[in-house]
Design goal:
elongated; about 50 residues; binds zinc ion; 1 helix; single chain; mainly alpha
């Protein structure tokens, strides 16, 4: 069996109700849309 550097096929975005299928080249748990949103929220919770 060959080892690939790509992620599993057909992974879905972990964001609630999001049905986006993540690209095999996207190793994040969120789609590009929610990755930005989650990142922003996270920043707001962290004191500057
Ligand atoms: Zn998403």
């Amino acid at each position: 069996m060959k080892k690939t550097k790509t992620s599993l096929k057909g992974r879905k975005c972990k964001f609630p109700l999001c049905k986006h299928i993540l690209s095999i080249y996207n190793h994040e748990t969120f789609c590009h849309v929610h990755l930005g949103q989650v990142g922003q929220e996270y920043k707001q919770k962290v004191p500057a």
